[in-house]
Amino acid sequence: MFTHIDFQIETVFILAAAALLLLLVQLLNRQMTEDTREHFTEDDLYKMARITGASEYEIFQKSAAEWPVSDTLVEQHVNEYLRHQATTYDVNDVIRKHEPKVDELRRPPF
């Protein structure tokens, strides 16, 4: 037969085990959501800007230099990016070319 103290000790062990199990589930859930996070071009653009110390606007300008894109069109592309997070072909090309270098640094996007 259990005494009052035995019952309290058993209850403490059960609660401790439940708390540890909850922490383990939260940790596994956090790892799964980080690993399955969708990859966005905007993340690479942001990381590239932080690594180089340039702004996203400057990356748009540099990418336009490699393609026949006018300054007016660059302004339109930047405005479209700011409104809808949409990158254009010239920026996508620069990101694709530099993606291995950006990924080597393993910096989180935010």
Account of the protein in words:
- With 110 residues, the chain is mainly alpha-helical.
- The chain folds into 2 domains: 1-37; 41-104, no CATH class.
- The protein contains 5 helices and no strands.
- The longest helix is centred in the first third of the chain and has 32 residues, at 4-35.
- The N and C termini lie far apart (57 Å).
Please provide a brief summary of the model.
The protein is 77% helix and 0% strand.
Chart the SSEs and their pairings:
Layout lengths: L3 H32 L5 H12 L3 H11 L4 H14 L4 H16 L6
Query: Proportion of β residues?
Result: under 5%
* Helix content, binned percent: over 70%
Quaternary organization: single chain
Listing every helix as H and every strand as E from the N terminus to the C terminus, the arrangement reads: HHHHH
User: Counting H and I runs of at least 4 residues, what is the number of helices?
Assistant: 5
Number of strands: 0
Poorly predicted spans: none
Shape: rod-shaped
Provide mean pLDDT, rounded: 83
Number of domains: 2
Query: What's the N-to-C terminus distance?
Result: 57 Å
Task: Pick out its properties.
77% helix; mainly alpha; rod-shaped; 110 residues; 2 domains
